[in-house]
Hints:
Strand order of the largest sheet: 14-13-12-11-15
Amino acid sequence: MNHNAPHTPRPLDHLSRTQRRILTTRQLREHGVTASTLAERCRPGGPWQQVLPQVFLLHAGPPTGDERLRAALLYAGCEPGATDGPDGPVDGQAMVTGLAALALHRFSSVPPLLGIDRIDVLVPRQRRLRNAGDVAIHRAHTLPPAQQVTGLPCAPVPRALADAVADLDDAETVRRLLTEAVRGGHCEAAAVVRELSRARLLSRQHVADAVDALLAEGRALAEGRLYEMVTCYGLPDPVWHVDLRLPGGPSLGGVDAYWPEHAVALEIDARGPRQDDDALWSQYAQKREQLERLGITVVHLTPKKLRDTLDQQATVVRTALMASSDRTPAAYLVVTPS
């Protein structure tokens, strides 16, 4: 057998019938498509068309939303599905971000893919790529871990939000996107604010206003989960949202829940990474130290823990309540509504 005999190309029509109807010049060459054949098929009125540099759509008419995404990723040097590891897309490749990623994450406040004018793609900073067609290139020193959504590498919601918000001037649209991210359970408020801060977007007034509303939304959801935890896991009823102080002394600070007979206080740590974060953390730490010196056990829970592991957090609180009988009696505190 002559192993050096040239490979006989398969008929070209099979390419147009496959599910992968978006291919690069290199992939077409591997299928035996010559430059002259490609040019002939992409002539005006021909059966194929070039949609991006080196990227071709193997049918006439507009691309579908999925084909637009796959074309953008191929242009950025990522072949969806070809380099996935056991846990999804490998790190270091391009991924969909911005409004297109939010559409993949099924945000109801984002138009469907066919209604989005631009496909944003996140790539490593060293990649030499320019915007082309309907594709906008975003660069990052370190790419976030990609998430597999409908078989495509997609930026996590906080990063996709930051890339989308960077090009949005409408305050209501920004507020709606950020609120849906938290209310829809896509991520916690702190993760969103961290990405916005990293992108230096918090200096924009309409973004800062939306963040204030977002943090309030995140705290309200966390408080709702805290009420649910106490009710569903049979914990004793605390007094809610109270201020603690020594008799005749200054305030020791407010807490979200307090069990006076057990000397256990609970706080939801819903801090966002804002400019005053260090000062705010110092206040948290100082209050905790003061209370613990007086024999009060302080439990800190984050909104993320309340969302993801409610049963484990109930166990943490129950353990603290049960341990109160083994501790030295705490100082008497005056409890007032905060």
